[in-house]
């Protein structure tokens, strides 16, 4: 590619970025702004989700068939109520997840879904004749004889025969009614063991698979007819379902969190741009252009695949922007090293990219492995976070390798920007930003071991004695966030809860502490939650809109969550270990595994010491910490592997220390850029976002320190015990290549 073509492509990308941002924010022609096209999750747009578990001992094919039938019935029942874009999915083996946008009352949602609802048609003596699964359809029609409305029904072939037999028996009054006030010729329509209607058969048996239910004098009102038709049309669930978890969010609280997250993201984005410019100068300009394109691609791919934007997803987007700089930082560090070694700027750009590629691929692939485990092991909310992270990593590799490289080559060819000073290197080939003192990581390894051991042991002891601050999603329980409209004393709220024999924890929120978050370890069912809310409403003069959020987690789902967390960490660690053994050697893999264990235990210890909440976002945080820490470790080990082939006469201790010090600036820069982006999210957003960010910020620091002070020394220990590395004494093929060839003009 000649110089003119490169300049044209560089100009074209700027135009595409400008146009892309304009379309993203304002829209153009038939393409509206992205805010009108992106799907918002229930935690932003408001609504209810309920997860229910089938109460059955069936397994295998029989269970799958049962769950398919249950899914069909619930989907038909939910659609019958005309809700906007309801989502019904099967989760795992025996659970059904129902998302109802726009519904703000969880009890209403559960009633619509029919947690344990079974529709049955019985005779007056309670003899079961058919169930709702035999009903094909139900609707309303005008009742010309009585006025008002009637309900029409259409049965399946089997249902038509059963209904004809039921009406024959009822018409002939062959049974004795078991219900006072209900005649023997009645057909009982029962939903969830409650009689919702009991029409009588007065004109003979009803055959042909069709029937009509008429009201009393004046018929049904339209509202009554619609409600009865919806109940009948919903059909019968083939199995009892038990609510295991549910969550409610009002649109008000969701959009407030969205606006605050966007503001925090913009601030973090600007800070990151400034940081790249200050530290990397003209290379920072190239990185910022690539980042501007990266954000556009990420958002529109997100829309294109129909992904749903959740609050944790926003955290994932912003975190991925920070991690996207990592590939650039690796490249820039290499280029500076090449210039400092005496190469021209143009040659340094070419060789720097070549030498950085293996490191970028290895480090990013290990992070993708952790994100994949996070996606398959997490809940739907955590999956949105993981999906965003994976998409972001793929795009970041493209923008760093293609876009950043293009602009660096263009800058390197220009007379104005090709001077070393624009690339952060002085005329004497000394880097402008350099940590002059080399740290002896291997020599001081016992200090790092002792500090880490003390923190981990103290934290685990505190956690064992005092206990960890588990969220209700880990222990089971119920949480309500209520807008009281004023500050209400905690004792007054406790008094209301005590009337229901419930022990609660009260936390204040809102600018003037006018909101309260009520937590209880008791896993309250729908009826118990309704009674507590009604009592609170009556006691403090609230309205139905005062309940901003409500979460419920059953004990079964909480136990499963803890088990899945441990399993996810083990699977992620095993996958990363196998990858590193294949790409490097087993000593690197074992040292990396020690680092993973250290980071997980260190973060858990800090959570115990400071009493941070361990909940569902903590899982995403821990697994991201694993991926982030491995990313940093891989960068160091890639340099160790390279130096083993170059510094053949040096001791392994010297090679490890030299390698760690060579990438120390990159490690610090990557951690700083991540923290710079996440800090506004931590300080400016809601607890839902902060709970995701906290373990990530802790992990960014711990992961950087452990890769330098734990993983590198452990690798040294292993090589000393086993007689050295297989790379020692071998000339690196990658380094042996001629990288001094000038870029074609």
Verbal overview:
With 745 residues, the chain is of the alpha+beta class. The protein is 59% helix and 13% strand. The protein contains 22 helices and 19 strands. The strands form five sheets. The chain has an eight-stranded antiparallel beta sheet with strand order 3-4-2-12-18-15-17-16. Strands 6-5-9-10 form a four-stranded antiparallel beta sheet, covered by helices on one side. Strand 9 and strand 10 (194-197) form a beta hairpin. The longest helix has 36 residues, at 687-722. The radius of gyration is 32 Å and the shape is elongated. Mean pLDDT is 81; it is low at 732-745.
Q: Which helices and strands, and how do they pair?
A:
Elements: H1 3-25, E1 39-40, H2 42-45, E2 47-54, H3 60-79, E3 87-91, E4 95-101, H4 106-113, E5 119-123, E6 128-131, E7 135-142, E8 149-155, H5 157-171, E9 187-191, E10 194-197, E11 210-214, H6 222-234, E12 241-249, H7 251-280, H8 282-304, E13 308-309, H9 311-340, H10 345-377, H11 380-413, H12 445-465, E14 469-470, H13 472-475, E15 477-483, H14 490-498, E16 505-509, E17 515-520, H15 526-540, E18 547-553, H16 555-583, H17 586-610, E19 613-614, H18 616-646, H19 652-662, H20 664-684, H21 687-722, H22 733-736
Parallel strand pairs: 1-13, 14-19
Antiparallel strand pairs: 2-4, 2-12, 3-4, 5-6, 5-9, 7-8, 8-11, 9-10, 12-18, 15-17, 15-18, 16-17
Helix pairs in contact: 1-8, 1-11, 3-6, 7-8, 7-9, 7-20, 8-9, 8-11, 9-10, 9-11, 9-20, 10-11, 10-16, 10-18, 12-17, 16-17, 16-18, 17-18, 17-21, 18-19, 18-21, 19-21, 20-21
